[in-house]
Request: fold
Amino acid sequence: MLNENKTYSYEDLIFLLEQKKYTDLMRRIDTLPPIDAANFLTSIDGTYFPIVFRLLKKDTAAKIFAELDPDRREELINGLTDRELSPILNELFVDDTVDMLEEMPAGMVTRIMKIASPETRAEINRFLAYPIDSAGSVMTSEFLDLKRSMTCSEAIEKIRRIGLEKETVYVAYVINSERVLEGVVPLKKLLFASADAKIGEIMDQNVVFGYTHDDRETVARMISHYDLLAIPIVDKERRLVGLVTVDDALDVLRDEDTEDIERMAAILPTDKPYMRTGIWETWKKRIPWLLLLMISATFTGAIITHYETAIGKYAILTAFFPMLMDTGGNAGGQTSVTIIRALSLGEISPRDIFRILRKELCVALLCGITLSAVTFLKIMAIDFRFTLQSVTESGIVQNNLAIALVVSVTVLFSIPIAKLVGTLLPLGAKKIGMDPAVMASPFITTIVDIAILFLYFSIAARVIGF
Amino acid sequence: MLNENKTYSYEDLIFLLEQKKYTDLMRRIDTLPPIDAANFLTSIDGTYFPIVFRLLKKDTAAKIFAELDPDRREELINGLTDRELSPILNELFVDDTVDMLEEMPAGMVTRIMKIASPETRAEINRFLAYPIDSAGSVMTSEFLDLKRSMTCSEAIEKIRRIGLEKETVYVAYVINSERVLEGVVPLKKLLFASADAKIGEIMDQNVVFGYTHDDRETVARMISHYDLLAIPIVDKERRLVGLVTVDDALDVLRDEDTEDIERMAAILPTDKPYMRTGIWETWKKRIPWLLLLMISATFTGAIITHYETAIGKYAILTAFFPMLMDTGGNAGGQTSVTIIRALSLGEISPRDIFRILRKELCVALLCGITLSAVTFLKIMAIDFRFTLQSVTESGIVQNNLAIALVVSVTVLFSIPIAKLVGTLLPLGAKKIGMDPAVMASPFITTIVDIAILFLYFSIAARVIGF
Reply:
């Protein structure tokens, strides 16, 4: 022992313990450095140990738990029920849990993984070396494994014995002696088969499975695509290491969709519900894109400034800025969001680029013609009679027809440009391994703004001549 | 396509087909997941397609039939005689048949209704009466119902007898003599209970259920929230009429999220995958909002025109139009999209309006201050030195500091306005029973543009004086 100087002594604590002054004892322990509290608890009689531990506040218990020596910890895990252990585990820092798990016998690891909340489990799995957002990080290691040579009644007997502990008992997997995945047996089939049929005969060898390093969204989409209750997860040698259940898949897909939606709206993804995200945290998630996009608008400013003299003469041109830019942004946003969603659902891949481009450009042409015609008619029939009346009367040199023409030709060309940008950016992002969801309306709008303004002034310069 | 790991390939099947080894081919197809078998059949030559289909076992044929894409299915219905079609239709689950009928031309519907057995026809008619997107329209009427007075072994016997026909056999529901829902028994519990225990003793009386007229998204979210394999659906008298299974919930949530995402991007929702939506159809889904939003921009045009003389003198003010409008649109879009998603996940409701407003306005203030400060510094330090250089040299009357001030004050106030609009519109839409998803970035942007331009010119008029 180190020769430590302290303002308190174990003797005081032991006195309180012996006098059964538990309230005072707990208050004292609460104020101790956790390592000291752990040492104190380790020093007391083994029968008192779990009793005292149970009385501790949850967070204190977790901190002390992390500091206990491995033997004492295992003793405690064996002495506590799942209900007592669960809050403590969920209070523990995940790295502590992982450190702890790495030193533990396999059976105990399994029990702890089962008690942990899904979030804790995801984190533990991730810490245990599976990449973030991988199938490995969301899987559970609780599954039913059978051997080919078992009979159905032996299998049912095994399931009865251990099944209630398992997260799902409705699907069992068949593995060989190297633990390689060989087949799947739905419980339904097992129940209705004759008692002495061999598992190897009734199992289905066509198993859809995922690898630990697969994206968690991919395996969740496979569960959805194949209407599965669970998907087995294997390592590189195809050895069964876990499974992802349909309820976890639902959570994964909800979170992935929320993340996509947030990214599409220029927000950094949060993983907390709206009401539980604080003001500063919300600000931190929203300000980076707002700043970046605001600063990118420097380019549009520069283009406008470049044509400043022309604007001085034809100020009416600026009246169409918002319409042109919003329409371009909306048209590009429609395409990019459609493509982002189709990529995320696995309906298309960057390999389909030429078919997608052909389709998008045809649609863009149709939209461009429609919008261009409507805008021309609207400017001639409405704007010059009502909203732009003051301008036509103000005596500044201009030509109504020329302006209507400039605006409508700009619309005609800007829709294909917007839809092209909206097609190429998400597909390109996917191709280079970025999240395509970032390439949605806000980002597209900024780029499309630049192109449209440039186009607008170029056309105006030719038609009106400045 | 999904990154799928499978233990089989289409090449083997095509080889068997080309070698005319039909028996082997049928055996292989029999073991495939129906959706893969459907994709395989869709990929083969059209003339082989009905031939191969006729050779399939009835129940396999029905499962594959349910997974075919609508065009292929209609082709097949036209190619088969009533006698060939009838057993397939009667093997189909009623909810699949109803989904199919909803997409079919009238003549074909009549033919199918004629072939169907009277019982099936009656059920189809009942399903067709449930409102679109209701729980009733997605539920299956195939479920396991037990009585309280049964013993576990009687229940298992009943499940063995009819269970394989049912879409799910993993949850059974307990009903009384009036068919009113009384409890739920997971098969797991049934298996591990003693054979002569009564169902009434082991059932769980706390059943989560939905009504036929509930929104399909609501019941799907309940399945996700409670980690259920299925949710029972009852009528107004709480009589059990069907159930929605977790795989249907996955489909519902995928479609609902896709619809939300489309609406948020100003697209009318399609229910077809991207690659199967034709050019005209895509145009029809995209053009209405583009037109509407384009025409709404008439108001921004009018505001700008109103200040036309000022713009003639201070053309530099227009250089900040895109930045101001995009930033406002992005800020409002972030808020509206966050709120739309939280509403859709049931995290918030219009009743929380004051807490939401307080939070959003605090965040808006923080964002406004940050963006305003950055834009002021950027204009002074960068814009006037580089991008706006030509302007300051052009001799037009102006005051750099005043302009930087006008722009940054506009930013400061426009962020809270944008976030206010982004909060109120989706909450208001929800309150009056509209889909809040329509109130996303494109719509918000148009409204926010008007407010910001008005603000910008008002501030400019005071500071610069025109």
The first helix of chain B runs from residue 10 to 18.
